[in-house]
Amino acid sequence: MSQKKSLKSRLWAFFQGIGKTFMLPVALLAFMGLMLGIGSSFTSPTTIETFPFLGNDILQAIFSWMSTVGGFAFTYLPVLFAMAIPLGLVRSEKGVAAFSGFVGYVLLNLAINFYLTLTDQLAAADAMRTAGQGMVMGIQTIEMGVLGGIITGIIVYLLHNKFCEIKLPDAFAFFGGPRFVPIITALVMSVVGVAIPMIWPIFAAGINGIGSIIQGSGVFGPFLFGFGERLLLPFGLHHILVAMIRFTEAGGTQVVNGETISGALNIFYAQLQAGLPFSPDATAFLSQGKMPSFMFGLPAVALAIYHTARPENRKKIKGLLISGVIATLVTGITEPIEFLFLFISPALFLVHAVLTGLGFMIMAMLNVTIGNTDGGILDFLIFGVMQGFKTKWYLVLAVGAAWFATYYFVFRFAITKWNLKTPGREEAKAGAEETATSSKGTSHNAERILAALGGKENIETLDNCITRLRLVVKDMSKVQDDVLKECGALGIVKLDDHSLQVIIGPQVAILKAQMEKVA
Among residues 505, 466, 469, 484, which one has the least CA distance to residue 325? Predict the structure, then answer.
């Protein structure tokens, strides 16, 4: 039984880690997407016609440069995943892991090219798309997209864990330890590359099947995506679903400028880079679906929490709520608000998940075409307003007003009807003021949080994603939930007997670094 629990904990840690590693390339992609969006918008003939001063040669050179640089992450996304996954998952020699990821990805495609050439399956240039082949870093290979990078990254991570400390005989000692990792990676990925063409059709059929279900659901498909993504968020597994829709056939496949592009976000960026109209089928799974809930709904929740708080407590919670609203509006990071009510009322979180799904569905039904990743005000302005009325950005405001009212009245009614203890509704206790004052200075205190987790000896692994600490602990009974919340934790998620997440907020990376120093 203990072995099963241990295996379950390892699997939770692995899948959480995979989801977390996706954030490194995705964060770069989001930033590069903003550059691409600004550059393509201001080089558009329609925009120049409306604002003639933008036609200045120097300005156009700058905007063209932004478009060129912005397309970098989209073009090389698979190799970024191949490097980021082992970099994020391994505990030591991270540089070696990332280097091995690059080596493995290149050799994977070289080996595929070798097999296709040997078996006379290498398609002619004008038939590559039909044959499911494409050019990757100058190598003609099977068009696997970001999945090729993910497969490489996972294999390199496993090889790194097994061989990073290997000891070879004295005659070969120079090749031992970390130096052996890229060597074994080169050998293994060369073999995997030969095997891929034989098994890829089966694997691709599975991905296409998922895509067919989602795409075949019509406007209900975006609802399922938005609803499912919110339900997975408390467990930190939503990144996997999001990556599948954004970067694989599950998010659709289209031909853009003669190239077959798979994944909703990939399609959007390809069309943005080429100056083509945006496909509603792709943007249905992107930023526009989040906007009703992120830009309007969650700020309404914060307002409802503020209005239902005890008058004497409103000043205390104002900063917490404002910071949460700013994070949601600007960056699309929603946990600081969501975790204020998730554990208090899971039913309200379910309502929030349904409304988020409906937001995706309504935006798709209205043929709004706003892409990118975050769903905040930057995406709305750069990929909606600045792209012109063809994106139908104005409909976001109309739907958002309805979402604001719905969220506000539903949450205010539920909080008052069932006397939910959202922030600021706690009954005053003797000494509460002194406790609040004294704990303010120790909020996110690394030493105190480490002690509340049972001490460094109780922590097997410590990592973080955008907003939460992700841990595997030896003894969950030593974790002190109340102390963690006193230190500023927004919530605690116990996935099993050993896997734990502590929701901190956007400052989690700083806290994790401080904890590692203390430990």
Answer: 505
Residue 255 lies in a domain: no
What is the reported pTM?
A: 0.75
State yes or no: is 487 an active-site residue: no
- CA geometry: angle at 249 spanning 247 and 254, to 5°? 95
Burial class (CB in 10 A: 0-12, 13-18, 19+), 161: middle
Q: In Å, what is the CA distance from 254 to each residue of 2, 90, 259, 271, 281?
A: 48, 36, 8, 10, 10
Query: Which of 132, 165, 197 is where one domain is finished?
Result: 197
For the segment 91-134, what is each residue's pLDDT rounded down to a tens digit? 889 999 999 999 999 999 999 999 999 999 998 887 887 777 88
> How do residues 372-392 score in pLDDT, each as one tens digit?
888 999 899 999 998 889 999
* Site of tokens 């970067």: 247
Q: Report if residue 362 sits inside a domain.
A: no
Please give the distance of CA 429 from its chain centroid, rounded to a whole number. Answer: 41
Domain count, the chain: 2
| Three-class SS state of 404 | helix
Name the phi and psi angles at 493, rounded to 5: -115, 115
Distances (CA, A) of 127 to 99, 151, 198, 262, 467: 33, 26, 20, 18, 46
Mapped onto helix, strand or coil, the DSSP state of residue 310 is: coil
Contacts of 106 (CB under 8 A, 6+ apart): 79, 137, 139
Catalytic residue among 154, 465, 492, 511: 465
Domain span including residue 496: 444-518
- 490-509 burial, b at 16+ Cβ within 10 Å, e below that, comes to bbbbebebbbbbbbbbbebe
Give one DSSP letter per residue of 416-484, joined into a string.
Answer: HHTT---TT-SPP-TTHHHHHHHHHTTTT-HHHHHHHTT-GGGEEEEEE-SSEEEEEES-GGG--HHHH
CATH number of the domain where residue 449 is located: 3.30.1360.60
Residue 513 lies inside a defined structural domain of this protein: yes
142, 163, 197 - which closes a domain: 197
Does any domain span residue 314? no
